[in-house]
Write a structure and sequence with these properties.
The chain is of the alpha+beta class. The protein contains 4 helices and 2 strands. It has a two-stranded parallel ribbon. The radius of gyration is 13 Å and the shape is globular.
């Protein structure tokens, strides 16, 4: 199985030295269903800046979120500790 670092290196945004919010327009997002406060903050941030956030999956575990990201279904905004073990 590929590591998170390997998959991130191949991700479309990996070639950027920095990512700004408008770079995330039309990028599919995977979110953790039980982290509604994080999801609300992220969605509000997108909305306040006039950028649509395209949520393609709401999942019930961080392992599922990581799996979807590894399979290039979408990107996720998670705490660093969530991916540090991978």
């Amino acid at each position: 199985m590929a590591s998170v670092a390997d998959c991130l290196a191949e991700a479309p945004l990996a070639e950027h030295t920095g990512v700004v919010l408008k770079d995330l327009d039309r990028v599919p997002f995977v979110v953790h269903h039980l982290c509604s406060s994080t999801e609300k903050v992220v969605l509000r941030f997108f909305r306040q800046n006039g950028i649509p956030c395209h949520v393609v999956a709401e999942l019930w575990s961080f392992e599922n979120v990581k799996s979807f990201v590894l399979e290039n279904v979408g990107v996720a905004i998670v705490l660093r500790i969530t991916v540090m073990e991978s």
